[in-house]
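Tokens in:
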């Protein structure tokens, strides 16, 4: 939908036309369109959204827009939105809101829903319990297909998903049935005859990254969540799992770029906050780089005897850093996809060592030829740089593959062992290697 046309209709008070447009638009597209409006226009346009679609649009908005609307809603409007909002979306919203808005929302939901919200809010932030919803379809063993279909028709509109139904016995999960089975099987069959008993589930304190991994591995639409007593308390749906994947990928990217993660979108984060997120790592890396400087000063005699040695330092350091980053990126990805484990560390090292020999030999040979031709056929100098480059690449690739695995083993995020940190370590190693080889061959 063209924003200008929509705004023209809204400003001309052609509310019937605006309502017709909103009626046929997808909830995600409406939220995106409203995000470009000023506050006053946003509130007016939101009130024109068909009632049955309003909660879906509200759930797709960012927390800033939601907070503004909550402040503007009447008590009746707020209750209507909250009644139609799924539990997990309500909890996500409350986690972002200031205390005064949280209080107002909790005052406008039923006691039953408020109790469920408080339970979910008390789960650890990175757990399955914190992203689950309590709105799912549960059935009994002796329920027939016909009775199950009638039950879904009656209550399904209030559930997050009806594609998977859960068979409970004394609140414990004993089986699952898909909507496809219910629609294709005989009406007189019972859930006991129909259900699958091989169930993939998680517990409330399972890490949400592990939850997302299970969705990816088994191509699930929903995943049941059990408490410590093995009773079913909720489900995680695929849309929430995708949000976790996006959040984790964003967090890894920021850490790999040597920044503290930010939960807010780029434009919603202040300049000061952006600076705060970047300064600590940059300060650490800057101070650690002084180690490289102190090593270089130890070899002043080599500089004096052969000043040309200095000109090759940037090439060695950059190549080493790039090689280390290549290895670390692949290993971090392998860890994230559960393809590489700490028990594989020696296999990984052997593989990266063989790769580094091939890569290093090729790059070293290219540099030996280049330096030999450019710098008066100085074979010793070209060999010094070539051998240093080969050794640097081997060390860089080994560091790049080992550090993420070690980080994972000691329960740190492997992403922190990415480019900037590895580059700093490799810089130090490359300088030591280079000047030790150069002083032995040339001086």
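Residues out:
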């Amino acid at each position: 939908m063209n924003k200008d046309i929509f705004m023209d209709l809204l400003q001309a008070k052609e509310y019937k036309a605006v309502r017709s447009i909103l009626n046929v638009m997808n909830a995600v597209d409406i939220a995106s369109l409203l995000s470009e409006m000023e506050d006053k226009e946003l509130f007016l346009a939101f009130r024109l959204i068909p009632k049955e679609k309003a909660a879906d649009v509200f759930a797709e908005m960012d927390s800033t827009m939601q907070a503004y609307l909550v402040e503007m809603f009447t008590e009746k409007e707020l209750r209507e939105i909250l009644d139609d909002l799924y539990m997990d979306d309500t909890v996500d919203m409350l986690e972002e809101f200031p205390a005064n808005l949280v209080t107002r929302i909790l005052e406008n939901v039923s006691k039953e829903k408020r109790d469920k919200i408080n339970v979910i809010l008390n789960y650890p932030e990175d757990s399955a319990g914190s992203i689950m919803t309590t709105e799912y379809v549960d059935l009994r063993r002796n329920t027939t297909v016909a009775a199950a279909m009638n039950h879904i028709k009656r209550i399904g509109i209030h559930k997050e998903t009806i594609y998977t139904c859960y068979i409970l016995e004394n609140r414990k999960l004993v089986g699952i049935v898909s909507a496809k089975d219910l629609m294709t099987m005989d009406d007189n069959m019972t859930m006991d005859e129909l259900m699958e008993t091989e169930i993939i589930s998680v517990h409330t304190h399972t890490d949400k990254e592990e939850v997302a991994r299970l969705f990816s591995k088994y191509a699930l639409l929903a995943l049941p969540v059990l408490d410590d007593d093995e009773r079913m308390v909720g489900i995680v749906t695929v849309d929430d799992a995708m949000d976790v994947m996006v959040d984790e990928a964003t967090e890894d990217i920021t850490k790999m770029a040597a920044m503290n993660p930010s939960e807010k979108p780029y434009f919603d984060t202040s300049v000061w906050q952006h600076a705060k997120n970047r300064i600590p790592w940059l300060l650490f890396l800057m101070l650690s780089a002084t180690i490289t400087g102190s090593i270089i000063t130890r070899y002043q005699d080599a500089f004096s005897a052969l000043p040309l040695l200095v000109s090759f330092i940037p090439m060695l350091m950059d190549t080493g850093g790039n090689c280390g980053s290549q290895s670390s990126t692949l290993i971090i990805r392998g860890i994230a996809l559960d393809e590489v484990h700490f028990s594989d560390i020696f296999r990984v090292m052997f593989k990266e060592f063989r790769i580094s020999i091939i890569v290093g030999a090729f790059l070293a040979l290219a540099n030996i030829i280049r330096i030999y031709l450019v710098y008066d056929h100085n074979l010793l100098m070209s060999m010094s740089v070539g051998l240093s480059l080969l050794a640097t690449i081997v060390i860089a690739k080994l560091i790049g593959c080992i550090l993420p695995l070690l980080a994972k083993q000691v329960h740190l995020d492997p992403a922190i062992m990415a480019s900037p940190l590895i580059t700093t370590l490799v810089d130090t190693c490359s300088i030591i290697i280079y000047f030790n080889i150069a002083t032995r061959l040339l001086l």
